Amino acid sequence: MRIDLQSAKSHIPFFACKTKPRLRHQLALKKIVDGLGDGREVTVVGGGFIGVEMAGVLAELGLRVTLVEAAPYMLAPFDSDMVKIAEREMQAQGVRLLLSDSVTAFHVQEDTTIQVALKSGASHKAELVILAIGVAPSTEFIRDSGIELGPKGHILVNDAANQL
C-alpha cells in the first residue's frame, strides 16, 4: 500500500484502529467526524470486528461509508450464513461493501480529500480513511500466566467459550 502525501496540506484525514478504540481514540475520532458533517464520504479499510463496527456507527451518524475488505467476505471468524446476514444488514444501513478488493494506494489531494486506489483498478474519493487492518489480540501481559494462547496470540476457549 502506498500513501502519496506530496501534495497534502497539514491536515491528513487518516485514523488508524489497531485495537478496540480507547476513550482518547474515540474522542479524537469524534472530533474528526464532527468536522465532516452529514453525508460526507468515509472509507473503512478492513472487514473485521473493528472495521465493521466503525462502518456501522459512522453510517448511523449520517456519513456515506465504503468498507473495503480484501477477503471475499467480512467477519472471517463467522460461518458464511452469519456473514451473509451481517453483510445484508450493513448494506441496509447504507454501507457500500467492496469485497475481494484491496487498497493499493492513497493519494491525498490538494483539498485534503483522499483518492483511494484499489487493486481492481477502481478508485473512489473519501474525506476520511479509517484503517482497521492488522488487528492482533493484546494479550502480551498474560503470555507467562499459564493461560493457553493460540498461534496469533488469542486466548483459546472450548465450545462453551470457557478458557482451556
Automatic annotation (TrEMBL):
Cofactor(s) the protein requires to work: FAD
FAD/NAD(P)-binding domain sequence ranges: 29-160
Keyword Oxidoreductase assigned: yes
Keywords: FAD, Flavoprotein, Oxidoreductase, Pyruvate, Redox-active center
Molecular function terms, GO-annotated: oxidoreductase activity
Top-rank taxon: Bacteria
InterPro entries from the UniProt entry: FAD-bd_OxRdtase, FAD/NAD-bd_sf, FAD/NAD-binding_dom
Protein name: Pyruvate/2-oxoglutarate dehydrogenase complex dihydrolipoamide dehydrogenase (E3) component
